[in-house]
Write a structure and sequence with these properties.
Layout (H helix, E strand, L loop, with lengths): L2 H8 L10 H8 L2 E2 L3 H9 L7 H9 L3 E4 L7 E4 L3 H14 L2 H6 L4 H15 L7 H10 L8 H11 L3 E6 L4 E5 H4 L8 H16 L4 H8 L3 H11 L4 E5 L2 E5 L12 E4 L4 H4 L13 H4 L9 E5 L2 E11 L2 E8 L5 H18 L3 E3 L1
Parallel strand pairs: 11-12
Antiparallel strand pairs: 1-3, 2-3, 4-5, 6-7, 8-9, 9-10, 10-11
Helix pairs in contact: 5-11, 11-13, 12-13
């Protein structure tokens, strides 16, 4: 079983069968959103002829939403999915944040006041920058020092009050979720668990149950319940004493050499607890130095992470510096140049590889 090729196919990296940003995000269930420029490229590389501007437009029109669902970390989800996913994941994320709230001296009463402030300044379709959100809190006598401001925003988003909204030149603004996103049909918990599991294994398979538990941030029991509900519709293969699950009847194209320029935090790597199927353990520190949580953009050759890359935007174009783990062959260099060219076109710049 070629795990890398199957994942590239199922994640719509080696094929482009989707046509809009919201289709990509819905197919994936959710996509990492910590690094906003990189997150936009994660969506764009799964679409034919996408541009940074077209992904911005999807955010500006409220078709895709950036908030804190899975594991309480920033993700991008489709507008139609944001409420049922938050309803499923927020209770556990909020319960698990008690120690952090205590350390920041943020009790339930204070956080309730914060939500009242946000509701007041955003009501009526208004949008505010992060700085404006913090300023309103300070004016109400609520300190945003240290990490308090970020945690207050996080808490309000998990309660379903606010979300990131339209983009500006520097950042995204905030809006009230109920004003920014049209109402959607509610999902029962069992149905939501099954739906999240279905999307995970169909988009990221081959994957293990432990991968899904980690990615979703759900309790082991909740994630397992969702998995068991969709298990009859999946197929599995045992490799190295692990059961790998995926959607059936995957028609892979004829094997060929491939190269991709993936951003840091892309789901191809971040969507799994165990990343060894595509990244050698001895190279992991080069992708995420010291396990500091900051992931470099990666060179993926024939399904395996083969190095990292960095971009520098200059007046004359976009410069790509490559740091391969081993010397790339002529064909590999040519294929990666094509991948980098696609990224430059997405950003709207001429390409220069240093």
């Amino acid at each position: 079983m070629d795990i890398g090729a199957l994942r590239l196919h199922n994640q719509h990296i080696s094929r482009s069968a989707l046509t809009t940003p919201e289709q990509v995000v819905a197919w994936m269930g959710g996509m990492q959103g910590q690094d906003f420029p990189g997150a936009k490229w994660s969506i764009g590389l799964r679409l034919p002829k996408a541009t940074d501007a077209s992904i911005n437009c999807a955010f500006d029109e409220g078709r895709i939403i950036r908030t804190w669902p899975m594991r309480g970390t920033l993700h991008i989800v489709a507008a139609a999915d944001v409420r049922w996913i938050l309803s499923l994941t927020s209770p556990g994320n909020l319960a698990g944040s008690k120690r952090r709230r205590d350390a920041l001296e943020l009790d339930d009463k204070t956080l309730g006041r914060c939500r009242e402030v946000f509701a007041r300044i955003l009501r009526g379709g208004k949008q505010k920058s992060r700085e404006e959100m913090y300023s309103a809190l300070e004016s109400a006598g609520i300190s945003t020092a240290g990490q308090r401001g970020y945690h207050i925003l996080w808490n309000a988003a998990l309660h379903g009050l606010i979300c990131f909204a339209a983009t500006t030149e520097k950042e995204q603004t905030f809006a009230l979720l109920d004003e920014w996103v049209p109402p959607a049909k509610e999902m029962a918990r069992d149905e939501a668990l099954a739906e999240l599991a279905r999307r995970y294994f169909t988009s990221r398979g081959p994957a293990t149950l432990q991968d899904f538990i980690w990615w979703s941030g759900l309790s082991a029991g909740g994630a397992r319940a969702g998995f068991e509900a969709v298990k009859p519709g999946l197929v599995s293969e045992s490799v190295k004493q692990k059961s790998w699950w995926m959607a059936p009847e995957i028609a892979l194209p004829k094997p060929e050499h491939t190269a991709f320029a993936l951003p840091g935090f892309d789901e191809y790597l971040l969507g799994y607890k165990d990343r060894s199927a595509v990244l050698d353990a001895e190279q992991a520190d080069k992708v995420c130095p010291g396990g500091n949580g900051v992931f470099a953009s990666t060179i993926v050759i024939d399904g395996r992470v083969a190095g990292t890359w960095k971009r520098t935007i200059r007046k004359t174009g976009i410069e790509i510096n490559t740091i391969p783990f081993a010397t790339l062959g002529k064909t590999e260099r040519r294929l990666f140049h094509e991948a980098a060219q696609r990224y430059a076109a997405f950003m709207g710049y001429p390409l220069k590889i240093a």
